Amino acid sequence: MVRKMGAMLLVVLLSTMLLSACGTDEATSTPASGATDSGATNTNSSSNASELSGEITVWGWNVAAEGLKATVEDFNKKYPNVKVNVEDVGRLDVYDKLTAGLQGGGAGLPDVVQVESDRMDVYTSAFPDGFADLTDKAGKYKDQFDPSKWAQSEINGKIRSIPWDSGPTGLWYRTDYFEQAGVDPKSIETWDDLIAAGEKINAATGGKVKLLPVDIVADDAGFRMMTSELGVCCYFTPEGKINVTNKESVMAMTKLKEMYDKGLIANISGWDGVVGATKNGDVATVPFGVWYSGTIMDQAPDLSGKWDVMLLPAFEKGGNRAANLGGSTLAIPASSKNIDAAWAFVEHALASKEGQNIMMEKFGLWPSFIPAYEADLYSQPVAYFNNQPIWKMFADEVSKIPSATYTKDYAKGQAAIAEAQTKVLTQGMAPEQALKEAADSLANQTGREIAQ
User: Fold this and answer.
1) Mind listing the pLDDT tens digit for each residue in 356-386?
2) In this structure, are residues 35 and 123 in contact, taking their beta carbons and an 8 Å threshold?
3) Strands 307-310 and 169-174, how do they pair?
């Protein structure tokens, strides 16, 4: 999903709004009370598609809402008596209204709602029965989804949402800048290789082109991608302990510091800053999720053929280069009066090749549903990206993404690391010290134990 890097305000807001709600405190680890319980009576229980009827409302935002709208026509060929209303509510409004609705016992909520994967544990911790239990309906699909995303939907043994798009990462890079500096992209295997390439590119362009963009004070996306790659994302252990002082996290922050100290980081502000640096030629690379492909093509059409993508560099030669950043799910509020119809829509959109691939083809929403990768489009070259078959790279990456852990305190972890990043990059603090201070801050805020 297209992510807004300036979303820290939302993260803090959502975290604050949920403080008043009670809930459990388990962590959700991905593998290699408000509304009524999901056992509520459904108005339509028929398994016969032609007999299923009613009207459902679906909330999403931006390109995601447009993607869901694109699935309705085929859905209605199978379920002609179900009317689907997809509403582009806006990201902030979705979370504001979802939180208020769950606090109010489900009042005013839609039948289906988009929730970013890393927010699911926040909601299910605060509202354990706020979303319908889809275990009986969806359990058969478990082995067909990206395992790193599925577990973010399976909370305490119950399936509370269905993974939509995954965020396998890549290093988007300018082929012309690499060529100008005499750097062979195939030579980039490690972060050290990339830093050396960045120095050459910066010199070859008279210091005008930085290596990559970072929103230093507000977003830790680079740190999250690196720790995902290293298998310690995000901020907590599977047991729920604070996990930001481990050697892998120190390695990640140290690598960011090295890039900053060498003048290779473009300090930008929010999503607009990343997009601006991309289309204005201020950076040679952008490490981001697969979903950024659509933004590059839309915002910089004149640069067709000058962008390509490779896997993220590893921390050591031969090391893991797979990571995840972003992604969303679809959940059904337990208060829905038509859970069967809502499930039928979610199943068609997310657990079918047809549903997932129409959203991929039209809007670049990368499927979590692995069978979708069998379509021809995943092996075809993409003219914009140097005429390379980039989708195959991402499809092959998905199964290699390490596990990640999320808790209801994810937002606090994100804010604490962004603060640590600021201390390291702009104030010269040692990574070890900044991460220790972040861990201490999280312990004070959450009462959690710091992992040793």
Assistant:
1) 999 999 888 999 999 999 999 999 999 999 9
2) no
3) antiparallel
Of the candidates 308, 152, 309, 353, the one whose C-alpha atom is nearest the C-alpha of residue 233 is 152
Q: Which has the closest alpha carbon to 342: 43, 90, 141?
A: 43
Phi, psi of 72 (to 5 degrees): -65, -40
Q: How confident is the model at residue 27 (pLDDT cuts 50, 70, 90)?
A: low
Distances (CA, A) of 133 to 125, 148, 271: 14, 20, 35
268 vs 35, more confident: 268
Rounded-to-integer distance, Cα 29 and Cα 437, Å: 24
Domains of the chain (ranges plus CATH)? Answer: 43-167+328-374 (3.40.190.10), 169-323+404-446 (3.40.190.10)
Q: Are 224 and 406 in contact (CB under 8 A)?
A: no
- Give the mean pLDDT of 403-426: 94
pTM: 0.82
Query: Is residue 207 helix, strand or coil?
Result: coil
**pLDDT for position 28:** 55
Q: Which residues have CB under 8 Å from 46's CB, separation 6+?
A: 52, 340
Check residue 17 and give its pLDDT. Answer: 38
Whole-number pLDDT of residue 128: 94
In angstroms, rounded to a whole number, what is the distance separating the alpha carbons of residues 294 and 314?
Answer: 25
Nearest residue to 256 (alpha-carbon basis) of 316, 211, 300: 211
Alpha-carbon gap, residue 330 to 350, rounded angstroms = 8
Average pLDDT, the chain: 89
How far is residue 26's CA from residue 406's CA, in Å, rounded to a whole number?
9
Task: Report the relative pairing of strands 112-116 and 54-60 from DSSP bridges.
Answer: parallel
| Angle formed at CA 95 by CA 343 and CA 223, multiple of 5 degrees | 105
